[in-house]
Amino acid sequence: MRVVLQRVTTASVRVRGSSVGSIERGFLLLVGVGDDDPPGDERRLAAKIAGLRVFADDEGRMNRSLSDVDGAVLVVPQFTLYGDVRKGRRPSWVAAAPPEVAAERVDAFCDELTALGVPVERGAFREHMEVELVNDGPVTLVIDARDLGEARE
Questions:
Q1: Distance between CA atoms of 73 and 91, rounded to whole angstroms?
Q2: Are 11 and 19 in contact (CB under 8 A)?
Q3: Which of 49, 107, 105, 51 is nearest to 82 (CA)?
Q4: Is 26 left (phi over 0), alpha (psi -120 to 50) or beta?
Q5: Which of 40, 111, 119, 143 could disulfide-link to 72, CB 3.0 to 4.6 Å?
Q6: Could you give the residue numbers annotated as active site?
Q7: Residue 39: pLDDT band by 50, 70, 90 thresholds?
Q8: CA proximity to 135, closest of 14, 48, 25, 35
Q9: Are strands 55-56 and 26-32 parallel, antiparallel or unpaired?
Q10: What pLDDT band is residue 1 in, cutting at 50, 70 and 90?
Q11: Helix 99-115 and helix 41-51, axial crossing angle in degrees, nearest 10
Q12: 3-class SS of residue 128
């Protein structure tokens, strides 16, 4: 699984003109699921993201986590994170998990975040979404579950 994390002051997602999710301070998470991603990625990613200290403390240092700032996450499924552009001009999507599998894995990821006490809003699968955000910083991280070890408590 891959996540593009953006620290935001506000973020929202609309489908067919209607809001389906919005947050104030927190993270916009674009989440992609690969066809060969192993079980457990959801738990490792959720633990890493919930514990990341990328919000400023009173001295301006990035020392606070989501829970420290009463933050939330907006999770937007994004199969294009597995687009392969090495050949030709049209990306290949063969490395992305099928939509049914990806939906289940993203739901499990959201459930893991919720279990860690993180408020979660969601985008929609197989829908054209309009995502709006105010990037805070900007702070943007790309996190691949393959790069993470076992989750630490």
A1: 28
A2: no
A3: 105
A4: left
A5: 119
A6: 78-80
A7: confident
A8: 25
A9: unpaired
A10: very high
A11: 40
A12: coil
